[in-house]
Batch of 2 targets.
Target 1
Amino acid sequence: MQFDSSTSESLAASFISMKAFSTAGRGSWHAVSDKDWNDWRWQLKNRITTVAQLERLMPKLAPEEREGAILAGESKLAMAITPYFFNLIDIDDEACPVRRQVIPRIEETVTAAWETLDPVGEDTHSPVPGLVHRYPDRVLFLVTDRCAAYCRYCTRSRLVSNASGYDFHPEFDRQIAYIAAHPEIRDVLLSGGDPLLFNDEKLEYLLSRLRAIPHIEFLRIGSRIPVFLPQRITPELCAMLRQFHPLFMSIHVNHPRELTTEVREALGRLADAGIPLGNQSVLLHKVNDDIETMRALVQKLLMCRVKPYYIYQCDLISGSAHLRSTVTRGLEIMDGLRGHTTGYGVPQYVIDAPGGGGKVPINPGYILRKTADKVILRNFEGQVYEYPEGTGLPVEYPVCNSSSSGGKD
Ligand SMILES: *Cc1c(COP(=O)(O)O)cnc(C)c1O
């Protein structure tokens, strides 16, 4: 392959700049006091939720975005963006990878024949409202229908933000009673909506009730709040959470630009509280569906003490076609990670099978062929190797072949 050196130099420069940590800054909120800006409740109260706000903040708002923002909420999934996260958007670039994740577009109103509102069949695996028991030993515990900001490709838009009248009212007593009555459940994953939107007291109450169940070995929280609202990750929250170990947290970062100095500090506080951190990314068209961006992302996550856990093929949620990338591209990206960067940085690529099949791991093919006595492999550089199988022992080996066990059973 021929490389133009100026192209490869500019690629190297863009890779380095993607990995640089910087602050989200104050943007249009320069007059706000530090106290307010760093207060998570202020951030929530001042979220961008209306078209009028968007038009004021983004003079170059595209017509597709304006229309999308008008229809959001009326139809499917409300718009909400924290001022902090809004400042990561390049307001001059319609293709900005942060912008595509949170600014609605008119394309959301188009539903392909294979798209649905419950693409991974959660409602059909729900023994009590707000609890999904899909795998034998663990449950997904939905605690709220609200998030700090709304991802436009949300797989749970049917309940989240309540725009479509799903009327989500989890009953913690019923959810907890089910878990207590099923001793095979050893792992509870709190999600929603975003559990970290609860205040410390409410979250502590829930975690204590779960910890009081003897067969619960492992707790985890799925949250995008460290990314949308790092101000929420207070020392008090971390001190509360650390009482419930082993407690893991799965965060959700899609593009390296989301890893700011603010987020790095928030993640540092969680990691210092002994909380192992994993990241779940969704493969999104023109957000992170290229090797350079994904490699920068996983390396930057490791710098924040976060293990890249899953890359999800985007669920077939209604109105997500403009954000969905292909499985072919996902496999190319996995091929560009394994061997090319730190093994800890390589997540598992999965498809959550439509209709409720659960997560299915998707891997590039490293086994070229398998015969009775060998496996033919290729490595990350495309070179071919053979791994012979079999014992190599002679068929008539006297000791192994003897019917007596030689005194040792
Ligand atoms: C993803 C998921 C889990 C957790 O799966 P892990 O592979 O253990 O992370 C549990 N329940 C449901 C319904 C899920 O979708």
Target 2
Amino acid sequence: MTFMIVASFKILSLLFICFLFSRTAEAQLHVYLSYRCNTNKTFATNSAFQSDLTTLLYSLASANTKFYNATIVGGGDIVYGLFMCRGDLNISMCHQCVVYATQQLASKCRFSKEAIVWYEECIVRYSDRYFFSTVDTMPSFIMYNIQNASRPSFLQLLLDTLNFTAEEAANDAKKYATRESSISGFGTMYSLLQCTPDLSSRDCRKCLSGVIEDLPWCCVGKQGAGVLTPSCTVRYELYPFYYSDDQPAAISPPTNSSVPQGKAILLRHLL
Ligand SMILES: *[C@@H]1O[C@H](CO)[C@@H](O)[C@H](O)[C@H]1NC(C)=O
Ligand SMILES: *[C@@H]1O[C@H](CO)[C@@H](O)[C@H](O)[C@H]1NC(C)=O
Ligand SMILES: *[C@@H]1O[C@H](CO)[C@@H](O)[C@H](O)[C@H]1NC(C)=O
Ligand SMILES: *[C@@H]1O[C@H](CO)[C@@H](O)[C@H](O)[C@H]1NC(C)=O
Ligand SMILES: *[C@@H]1O[C@H](CO)[C@@H](O)[C@H](O)[C@H]1NC(C)=O
Ligand SMILES: *[C@@H]1O[C@H](CO)[C@@H](O)[C@H](O)[C@H]1NC(C)=O
């Protein structure tokens, strides 16, 4: 994706941001993470593009699926858009996330012809460029849990697990896989990998390999982390952060953990 990010010298282009997630029980359904607007490509107020974009966002917010892509051919350029919800969500939770996300895009990226917003539960993006079925790894968003897991064996186990699960996600029809693995001394590690399902298995695998490779430089020694790009995402934690048949998702680390409840550090690329 042609956003304003220079992919080389990644480590220099980092900005540390602290978020204090002060959430009440009710407000935890959808967790907003970040957004990017491409400010190089803009449209004018009341232009044909603006009206096409409004139509597009409305169409995304009206769909009742967990992945959806739409093309609006109106009076201006063509506008392409899609959303993807995390694979564990049900349709109603997905729909709610997409409604919030499209509202965010409409208010934050008011003049951009290309933009993306990430929630923990969904991704929504649009562009005047045809981007379906292609891998876009920029811009990306990185987050990590401030709790340490500095034992050297942790990183290797983590990378092996994620690499294995990436294979499963790439070969899954929905391009989604989760895994619970036991890590001696740490308990259960929960990992989740997902690509937009318009990607081929090969492209999904390529995208996931890229985000997994980011982990050692961004998040080494952390008990949890996530890398989100437009085309694929990876996340792992030592607590269940996604819904599964036998448990609800916890939004923040367990109460008896060593960090203050709900506190996390998110790290992201500098624009
Ligand atoms: C935006 O424009 C600047 C200056 O022309 C260019 O260096 C940059 O790569 C452009 N960014 C994108 C995302 O197209
Ligand atoms: C959705 O994307 C596919 C390519 O992955 C494309 O062939 C199809 O036309 C798109 N559908 C819409 C409604 O844009
Ligand atoms: C969807 O999932 C949420 C969270 O687990 C749950 O509260 C809700 O009842 C579910 N809705 C449906 C229609 O299954
Ligand atoms: C994690 O390790 C870093 C560096 O060793 C240290 O500065 C930090 O305080 C540790 N964080 C926690 C939550 O223990
Ligand atoms: C990842 O797994 C594939 C097979 O699924 C293997 O060929 C490859 O060497 C593994 N890569 C790493 C870095 O472990
Ligand atoms: C929190 O407590 C539960 C049960 O009391 C235990 O299973 C779990 O390992 C604890 N977690 C941490 C991070 O200490």
